[in-house]
Amino acid sequence: MSIRLVPPAGVQRTLAVAQLVGAVGDGAYYTCSALYFTRVIGMSPTRLGVGLAVAWAVGSLVGVPLGHLADRRGPRRTAVALALATGVVVASFLAIRSFVPFLVAVCFYATAQSGLTAARQALVGGLVPRAERTTLLAHLQSTLNAGLALGAALGGVVVGAGSRAGYLVVFAATAVAFVAGGLILLRLPEVAPVTGAAGAGSKLAVLSDRPYAVVTLVNTVLLLRMPLLSLVIPLWIAARAEQLGWLGPGLFVLNTAVVMGFQVRAARGVTGLRAATRAVRDAGAVLLASCAVFALSAASAPLWVTAVLLVAAATLQVIGEMKQSAGSWQISFDLAPAHQTGQYQGFFGSGVAVARTVGPLLLTTLLLDWGAPGWLLLGGLFLAAGFAMGPVVRWAERNRPAAVAPVADAATALPAAARS
CA-based angle 202:135:4, to the nearest 5? Predict the structure, then answer.
């Protein structure tokens, strides 16, 4: 079975192009924003961290109502509006000079980003047949990494130059990228909004779906892997092997390249709940192995041995990441009612915001202060979550309301031209 390097032309490719354009802006923004606000504006790292934590906490709360808005008003128009709003917020950074305006802006940024993710997922659910969704999401993940890498490279040039004007150009370019990504979505057909009896009883129904909430919680535990690569591992390397400081960015490049090249292949066999829970279970085991190898890197050893261990651990981590991503995508869609995709995806996606909010403090304490035992404890947590997903998903499947039972996909009712 051959693996397509790009998704099919039509709806799927348009979604990928929009993802790529937005990701280039994101890559440049993430590379430059922290340094801009600390070095150029003069904000303390503590205030910056507090502002980002508050912003993503807010973002975790708004995903469900904004996802519900996408269901009721149509996911395409909601996604376009939120992409444009994100562009406006990023443009406002050009004029921000103090903490309070920064806090307000980043809260709006996290809000728009959380809602945009939910609306895009609702677009996938409404326009792409069930059997093709996980493969498409794998393509979108590869595209995301490609865009982030390109944006980070552009941002790196600006960081190297260190000029205020360069940072402002990055913010302006990021704003344009979000606007352009939103306008590209206008090429897609709109998914019919939920109206009438279907919409009347669906208002924030996900908040009373306890099995789905537990599935989301288990997935959030596995998402604690997210702050590892961007925050904890570089600090771990700096504390244990300062001469290998260059390896932190190198492991980020390794992760990005592997996801770009192999995420679609990793998702190929994930076509239903059974395969998805197996993928998540395997991810927990691989992430445990990764943590164990990171723990070994704390031992006294020649520098080259430490470097080999770090590369091996990061390789295992990205394999676990790809398996967990593929399984969680399938689970999040298959357990959601077809007419409530937006709010369910908004709720499931709140795990990302929670991991971004809680993860940095939790993992820096657990891993940097506790060392090797902390890594083993984290690995055990990943393993437990991976094995817990199967029983929890089966419980959620048994207790789905009638409206959530398998139904014909909205995408299958679209004309063939709209699904090409």
Answer: 150
Which residues lie below 8 Å from residue 341, measured CB to CB, with a gap of 6+? Answer: 67, 71, 75, 121, 122, 125, 126, 333
DSSP at 7:
P
Q: Which residues contact 2 (CB under 8 A, 6 or more apart)?
A: none
Asked if 243 contacts 375 with a C-beta cutoff of 8 angstroms, the reply is no
- Paired tokens of 8: 């099919």
Single out the residue in 127, 158, 185 at which a domain terminates.
185
Question: Among candidates 296, 71, 55, 62, which has minimal Cα distance to 192?
Answer: 71
Spatial CA neighbour of 374 closest among 240, 184, 194, 249: 240
414 within a domain of the structure (yes/no): no
Task: Split the chain (420 residues) into runs of 10 and give each run's mean pLDDT.
Answer: 65 92 86 82 84 85 87 91 95 92 93 90 87 87 87 80 86 93 92 62 75 95 90 85 82 87 89 94 98 95 94 97 95 88 88 84 89 96 98 91 44 34
Number of domains within the chain? 2
| pLDDT given at position 407 | 38
d(CA 75, CA 60): 19
The answer to whether residues 32 and 157 touch, using CB atoms and an 8 Å cutoff, is no
Contact by Cβ (8 Å): 117, 351: no
**Helix axis angle, 75-92 relative to 164-185, nearest 10°?**
170
Give the CATH number for residue 309. 1.20.1250
* Structural domain span for residue 298: 202-404
> What separation in angstroms does the CA of 180 have from each of 7, 21, 199, 235?
20, 7, 31, 36
Q: How far apart are CA 389 and CA 122, in angstroms?
A: 23
Q: Looking at residue 195, what is its pLDDT?
A: 64
Answer whether residue 133 is part of any domain. Answer: yes
pLDDT of residue 202: 52
Task: Assess whether 176 and 285 both reside in one domain.
Answer: no
Radius of gyration of the chain from its Cα atoms, rounded to whole angstroms: 21
- How far is the CA of 55 from the CAs of 101, 342, 354, in angstroms? 12, 21, 11
Q: Which among 194, 231, 234, 235 is positioned nearest to 337, based on CA atoms?
A: 194
Alpha carbons 142 and 169: distance in angstroms, whole number: 26
| Centroid of chain to Cα 397 | 24
Give which of 122, 120, 114, 32 is closest to 72, Cα–Cα: 122
**Total number of residues shown for the chain:** 420
